[in-house]
Amino acid sequence: MPLAESAPTLYVDTFFARQPVFRADTSVFGYELLYRSGSEDDTGDYSDEDAASLLVLSSALASPAGAGKPDRKAIVHFSERSLLTDLHAALPPESTALIIKPRRHAGEGYLQTLRKARSRGFTLMLDSLEPDACDPALLELARVVCLDLAGQTPQRLADAARALKTPGRQLLARGVEDDQGLRRAKDLGFDLFQGFFFARPVIVPGRKLPTGRLARLSIHKTLGKGEDALEELARVIESDVSVSYRLLTFINSASFSARQKVSSIRHALNLLGWRKVRGWLLMVVLSELLPKGKPSELPYLSTIRARFLERASSGLAPGGVTPDTLFLMGLFSLLEPMLDTPMPELVDQLPLDDAVKDALSGKHNGFTPWLHLARCFETGDWSRLDELTTRLSLDPVKVASSYCEALVWAKALEEQASETP
Question: Which residues form the HDOD domain (predicted)?
Answer without folding.
Answer: 209-398
